[in-house]
Amino acid sequence: MGDTEQRASVTLHSSWRGCIGTMFGATILLAVGAFAVAVAGWRVIPTAILVVGVIAVIVVLFDYPIATTFDARGVERRMAFRRQLIPWDDVTRLVRSRPSFSFGVRKFTHGGFTANVGRRRYLLVDQGEGLDEFDRLDTLVEDLDVDVAFDEIEPPREGATATWTYRRRKWMPDDLG
Question: How far apart are CA 114 and CA 112, in angstroms?
């Protein structure tokens, strides 16, 4: 690629509520386990709670996606302490995660994306994307000619908020700035 060409990519972000909520829950579990061990000693139940808390914190830090970038190389998940590149050849399909219930609104909103890789499912983002992001991702998948059953995914509702708005303006797509 030349200096003027930019690699086509789409970045989707997980919600702050999801990132903070999962870390908060795992940390509380760890704190309860540590407190239980401090009070009761290394007995079975307090130790089990502590171990589960440690595992939960590790999973959140190393496997809960903050953002995911789709480009020609594949799908890159970015977590707090690591990055994971899943090549397009390994992705069998992209699907929506379970829908979430909108607070204050009596309807369901689309969930984020998961990638099926063989028998495993990887969470890519925990929230639905905006219509413009969906269209850009659809165009990217078509241009790359990858078979991930993207045409079977229901697009987000009209007026859905783009995921970059939950982050700083630096994440705003170039064509909107």
Answer: 7
DSSP string for residues in 2-18? -SS----EEEEE--HHH
Q: What is the pTM of this model?
A: 0.82
d(CA 100, CA 4): 40
Give the whole-angstrom CA distance, residue 78 versus residue 161: 21
- Cβ count near 101 (within 10 Å): 10
> What DSSP letter does each residue of 44-99 carry, written as one string?
HHHHHHHHHHHHHHHHHHHHS-SEEEEETTEEEEE-SS-EEEEEGGG--EEEE---
For 53-79, the pLDDT digits (tens) are: 999 999 999 999 999 999 999 999 999
3-state helix, strand, coil in the chain (%, to 5): 40, 20, 35
Is residue 126 within 8 A of residue 15, CB to CB? The reply is yes
Rounded to the nearest 5 degrees, what angle is found at the Cα of 75, between the Cα atoms of 83 and 63?
40
